[in-house]
Every structure is written in C-alpha cells, then in structure tokens.
Amino acid sequence: MKNLLTTTPAHWDERLAAGQGHLLQSWNWGEFKRHFDWTPQRIQIDDAAAQILFRQLPLGLSIAYIPKGPLVDWANPDQCQRLFSAIHTAAKKQRAVFLKIEPDVWCDDASADEAQAVQTILRQANFTPADTIQPQSTILIDISGDEKSILAAMKQKTRYNIRLAGRKGVTIRYGQAEDIATFHSLAQTTASRDGFGVHAPDYYRLAYAYFAPDRCALLIAEFEGEPLAALMVFRYHEMAYYFYGASSNSHRNLMAPYLIQWEAMRWAKEHGCTRYDLWGIPNVDPDTLESEFTERHDGLWGVYRFKRGFGGQIVQSVGAYDFVYNPLLYKIYQFRRGSTAE
C-alpha cells in the first residue's frame, strides 16, 4: 500500500483526471484557498485521494473540510477504511474539532448504487449527516451534442431571450485580469438587488489568476460599451462549472444574462467539456421546484427561474457528513455558527 502525504501538482491532477475528480479537489483550488485562511493537505493511498482544507481556530484547534471529495471507490470498503484512517491521522495532528466531507456523488438513477454505497460506508464509519457548504442541488446540462441540439433542449423562452439579446446589440467579450473590477462592481449590484453575498475583489482576482486562461474564462456582456452582465466559468476535465455571475440594473429588457450564459456553454464545449454545472438551485424535490418557482423569491428561487430555462437534469448530491473528534467543542462551534447566521 502506497501512502503519500505529499505529491506534485502534475501527479495529483493526473490522479484526479483518471478518477474524474472535482475541480474543488484540484491542486490549484487548494493553493487558491491558501489565500483565504485554508491550508491544503493532500493524501493519496493507491488509487484513492483526498485534499483536506484546514482552517485554524483559536487555541491551536482547527476544522477539516474535504469539498467534493474524497476520490475513492465507495464500493471498496477496504480502500475507504484505509483512506479514512490516513485522513483521521492528518486531522488529529491538526487538532481538528471535526471533519466535514461532501462527496461528489449524485442521487440520480445513474448513480443510485454509488449513492447507497456512500451512505452505508459513512454510517458504518461513524459519520453523521450535516449541513452542506456547497450547493446540494443543481442542474447539469449535457453539452456533448452540437449547438443546435443544446439549444433545442432549452425552453422556448430561453432560446428566444438568447437570440433577442444578440439582435438588440448585446455583445460578449472575453475579459482579462484588469476586468475583475468590472465583474466585482456588477456583483455588488447583484448582491444589493437579490440579497446574495459577494466576495472581496481579491477573491475573484486570485481565482482568475490560478485558473485562467485554460480552466477559467471571464465573460462580459456589453451594450454600446456599457457592461450589463459578467460571469466566471471554470472547467476541469470534462465538466464545466458556472461559479460566479452578476448583472446590472440597466437595460434588463435586453436579456444579457441569457446570451452570456450561452457563450459560457459554447466556451466549455470548445474546451472539451461534455457537461455544464449551473451550480446551485433550491434544495427541494423537482415537483416542488416546478410548483412553487413562480411564487417564491427567497434564497435561490430567483436564480432557479433563470436556470431552469437552459434545460438539463435536476440532480441532488448525497450531501455533507461530519466526523466529530471533540463533541463538546463541536456543539459550541455549531451554536456560535448558528448565532452568527441569525
């Protein structure tokens, strides 16, 4: 058994590529998160791998987090046990209060057996269901076909809005690092209008620096030189992710967000992606989504009204699970986090 606690960027990403690992488990994502109080540690045992992010707490304590991982054969209990043993050893050395994992496994029909295996393995390993950090539900769009077929799978109104934006003179350009200021300004407008949180400019600047130009594109939609919308799309192997988007309050009748989203899909397809993750919708069943989206305006309901028009499949992940090392401090942490959220 080969147990590696350190490795090289190329070797790490090669392993993730072989197992279709997630962008949030990539080497560059860990290095990017270093700038925001997280310290990555990578563990590889044979074909299994986990990038753990540690965040320091007072008194030399920490929390441990594995976003969209680990990469492991969930149908192989022995491999899971060996990997978790190494993860726990690393977490205890960092005096972690608890470990949170969010496996990159869907509960759809195609992945039902794997999802069941995840839940069984984690229950037997003394993990308990917990609140997620990443969105648990999303829409995955198949972009493996030609552009005509991708458009045909969208709702008629969305196709109309994409074409309307083009006819009315909305143009899309690919931004550079200096355009992050424009993106952030639009993000602040979006946050004020829709009640979303927004990162500091350095967050977007560094995300772009770590992944552009091959794995990230910054797109800006303009009308007569005025920025109307912007987004940052990322890709990792065959998957593309719509992580960050923003729009202004001006010329909303021109439907710029529709055209820019379509251009992001085209960019992803041109770079070899076969699926496009719209990254986050309300975490309820599809029937509830369809019956309530016209009436609900809180949380992610507004973005669902927009995203649903692009077609695709609604999917839900297995969620998050916590392993608790210090029950008392874990309860205190949860209480303080809940009080802050309120």
Please provide a written account of the structure.
This protein is 40% helix and 24% strand. It has 342 residues and is of the alpha+beta class. It folds into two domains: 3-133 and 318-341, Aminopeptidase (3-Layer(aba) Sandwich), CATH 3.40.630.30; 137-316, 3-Layer(aba) Sandwich (Aminopeptidase). Strands 1-2-3-4-5-14-6 form a seven-stranded mixed sheet, sandwiched between helices. A seven-stranded mixed sheet has the order 8-9-10-11-12-7-13, with helices on both faces. A hairpin with a 5-residue loop joins strand 3 (48-56) and strand 4. It is globular, with a radius of gyration of 21 Å. The chain starts with a strand and ends with a helix. The model has no long low-confidence stretch (mean pLDDT 94).
Task: Quickly list its features.
single chain, 342 residues, alpha+beta, Aminopeptidase, 2 domains, 7-stranded mixed beta sheet, 14 strands, globular
Distance between the termini: 47 Å
Query: What summary fits the major beta sheet?
Result: 7 strands, mixed
Q: Report mean pLDDT, rounded to a whole number.
A: 94
Poorly predicted regions: none
Q: Indicate how many domains the architecture comprises.
A: 2
CATH topology of the largest domain: Aminopeptidase
| Tally of individual helices | 12
The portion of residues forming beta strands comes to 15-25%
The total count of strands amounts to 14
Radius of gyration: 21 Å
According to CATH, what is the class of the largest domain?
A: Alpha Beta
Shape verdict: globular
What helical percentage do the residues reach? 25-40%
Which strands sit side by side, in order, in the main sheet? 1-2-3-4-5-14-6
CATH superfamily of the largest domain: Gcn5-related N-acetyltransferase (GNAT)
Task: Determine the oligomeric state from the structure.
Answer: single chain
- CATH architecture classification of the largest domain: 3-Layer(aba) Sandwich
What are the secondary-structure elements, in order, as H or E?
EHHEEEHEHEEHHEHHEEEHEHHEEH
**Which structural class is indicated by helix and strand composition?**
alpha+beta
